[in-house]
Design a protein that fits this description.
The chain is of the alpha/beta class. 59% of the residues lie in helices and 14% in strands. The protein is globular and about 40 Å long. The model has no long low-confidence stretch (mean pLDDT 94). The structure holds adenosine monophosphate.
Length: 192
């Protein structure tokens, strides 16, 4: 049983690493960004609402995001643990997640932060923009998303560091190399 978060700036490869961790540990990976993108694609009311914010590189409001996460965490497949990718991103979301977990008498085991320098991230994301055509991957929006990460999500990381459950992993390097580091870090954190 593992309940984990993966946090990292845009372009740090957290989605890729989340999928690999999920395979190896047999826990479901839940990406709020993926859920939003699926809703945008399906033109659901949630997707229509979220798209305005996503295209501008802004956070989708907590009122929308928190409820979506609460609903997702009430499904049966999270009984053996979960890996949340991209949530929480604000300290208000940390408080909300605390409440959800407290209701189920659950706690987080590990919070993993992938680190990378801003210029490397901008370079990677501009490359990804060419390949995938993601509408939030142009330079102005990328820089805004990075600013939000520094302004808001680093405070989230600090909260978990205070609680003693933060593990940081260098996200620069080949995908396999980073996965090896990530798996080692999780093992070490679980043994601690
Ligand atoms: P991601 O794929 O994690 O980079 O997320 C893509 C976009 O979805 C973000 O830029 C936000 O607009 C939105 N999003 C994802 N997770 C959250 C969250 N926890 N809070 C607010 N907005 C989010």
């Amino acid at each position: 049983m593992t309940r984990m978060l993966i946090i990292g700036p845009p372009g740090s490869g957290k989605g890729t690493q989340a999928d690999r961790i999920s395979d190896r540990l047999g826990v479901v990976a839940i990406s709020t960004g993926d859920i939003f993108r699926a809703n945008v694609k399906g033109e659901t009311p949630l997707g229509v609402e979220a798209k305005k914010y996503m295209d501008a590189g802004d956070f989708v409001p907590d009122s929308v995001t928190n409820k979506m996460v609460r609903d997702r965490l009430s499904e049966d497949d999270v009984e053996n643990g979960f890996l949340l990718d991209g949530y929480p991103r604000t300290t208000a979301q940390v408080d909300y997640l605390d409440e959800i977990l407290a209701t189920g008498e659950q706690k987080l085991d590990v919070v993993l932060q992938l680190t990378a320098d801003d210029e490397e991230l901008v370079h990677r994301l501009l490359g990804r923009a060419k390949e995938t055509g993601r509408s939030d991957d142009n330079e102005a929006v990328i820089r805004h998303r990075l600013d939000l990460y520094h302004e808001q999500t680093e405070a989230v990381v600090a909260k978990y560091a205070e609680r003693g459950i933060l593990t940081q992993v260098d996200g620069i390097g080949g995908i396999d190399e980073v996965t090896d580091r990530v798996m080692q870090a999780i093992k070490a954190a679980q043994a601690a």
